[in-house]
Amino acid sequence: MTIGIIGSGAIGAAFARTLARAGIEATISNSRGPESLKELVRELGSSIKAGTREEAARAEIVFVAVNWSKLPVALAGLPNWGGRIVIDANNPIEAPLFEPVDLKGRVSSEVVAGLLPAARVVKAFNHLRAEVLAGDPRADGGRRVLFYSGDDNTAKAEVAALIDRIGFVGIELGSLAVGGRLAQFPGGPLPNQNLVKIG
How many angstroms separate the Cα of 58 from the Cα of each of 116, 119, 155? Predict the structure, then answer.
């Protein structure tokens, strides 16, 4: 399994840290190019390398965490997704004002899926703060929970296996329309719920 990361901000870097801790290889990218990521990849170790946006997008699983207003540009002009899995870790809100984007009643993951024709989109990794996501998933005698949702069962199973491999417990929320709304920030009841499964 190859993994690419588009976006090296707080969430993208936190995801890369969880992979590095588990010894999983990945290519991380941003809009400024691989040179800007030298310090981050040096800190993360040999399993994470810097690459271009195009290199990251060719992976079998592509993790996308980009400021909402920059998503169309970040995803434009990339090769056909060809059924590859895209993990949507985005929320329709941006610093510094943190005002919600008007999605006209749509779920954010459905909007993201519209930017990714032929991709199998799974919503995940967006409901925990970056510092919690980057930290040890073991807590209070159990493992931290990560929610995920999507419309393709095989894609969800692969993301669930990845979640388990990096030490978290995955809980499926159903389709993008249902689960995406539950985990969406703002609006959903699950963001910032730092839950631990015991046993």
Answer: 13, 12, 16
Do the Cβ atoms of 12 and 65 come closer than 8 Å? yes
Instruction: Dump pLDDT digits (tens) for 144-192.
Output: 999 999 999 999 999 999 999 999 999 999 999 999 999 988 888 888 8
- What CA–CA distances, in Å, run from 35 to 31, 45, 143? 11, 16, 35
For the whole model, what pTM was predicted?
0.95
> Strand 3-6 to strand 61-64: parallel, antiparallel, or no bridges (unpaired)?
parallel
The 10 Å Cβ neighbour count of residue 103 is 14
Can you read off the two tokens belonging to residue 5?
């990361």
CATH H-level superfamily of 3-198: NAD(P)-binding Rossmann-like Domain (3.40.50.720)
